Amino acid sequence: MSASAEERRERLVEVYKEASGCLRCPLSQTRTKVVFGNGNADAELMFVGEAPGADEDRQGLPFVGRAGRLLDEMLAGIGLSREEVFVANVLKCRPPGNRDPQPNEIETCRPYLHEQVRLIEPRVVCTLGNFATKLLTGNQTGITRVRGTPQVHTLGERTVFVLPLFHPAAALRTPAVAETLRKDFESLPALLAQPLPEQEGPEPQPEPPEGPEPQPEPPEAPRTGADQLGFFG
Ligand code: URA
What is the CA radius of gyration of the chain? Predict the structure, then answer.
């Protein structure tokens, strides 16, 4: 019998607590806070970025900078709020100086993301930017070519629609990218209304890509940081 939403939420809180003290890779030596992700523990829609930046590392929350505010704006445009979706990253800890995630860090962190997807049971996972897209789809084609077209992938144990999107930080730099991102967001309600893809066995794990395109973000005034546990509504 499948687990209830409450049982899945409780297990997610356990995984959060475990991740909060994670010492599995060297990023544990340089991070300030683990950024597990937050939002609705039973969300139909998940977003996966690359890794926490400086603001996220300080606050322990994903996408709290300008890129996060743009993400909120895009969500509002389709009638959704951050509390209704779940937002996470491929890496739960900030690489020092925002350097590229290393293959061993990606591998070590992968079980956390797979467990999040297994427990939250989303229908659609949006990958934000080149790095998350290449890693979750196992395909090295650049984001400019693949954005906006849903793919079907098995992430850990769950088969979902993966919708590659431009990273909001790229949208902040280039108005045309922001326009495309907005358009791609508008396709989400119809995709969420589709039946869940047929559940398949696990996909072979791709080799981690050589590295993401740099996505620097200007420093931010911090938003009020809600506790991540409190957000697992
Ligand atoms: N960029 C990301 O990819 N993730 C964050 O959490 C913040 C910025």
Answer: 16
101 lines ligand 1 (CB under 6 A): no
On whether the pTM is more than 0.85, the answer is yes
Tens digits of residue pLDDT in 82-123? 999 999 999 999 999 999 999 999 999 999 999 999 999 999
Q: How much distance in Å is there from the Cα of 201 to the middle of ligand 1? A: 30
| Centre of ligand 1 from the C-alpha of residue 4, in Å | 30
- 7-11 contact pairs (CB < 8 A, 24+): 8/41, 8/42, 8/119, 8/120, 8/121, 9/41, 9/42, 9/119, 9/232, 11/119
The tens digit of pLDDT for each residue in 24-52 reads 999 999 999 999 999 999 999 999 999 99
One-character DSSP codes across 137-170: HT----HHHHTT--EEEEETTEEEEEEEE--HHH
Q: Identify the CA nearest to 126 among candidates 103, 157, 149.
A: 149
Write the single-letter amino acid at 151: Q
**Cβ of residue 130 lying under 6 Å from some atom of ligand 1:** no
How many angstroms is it from 122 CA to the middle of ligand 1? 20
Residue whose structure tokens are 């398949």: 200
Short-list 195, 169, 146, 194, CA closest to 74: 169
Ligand 1 centre distance from Cα of residue 57 (Å)? 10
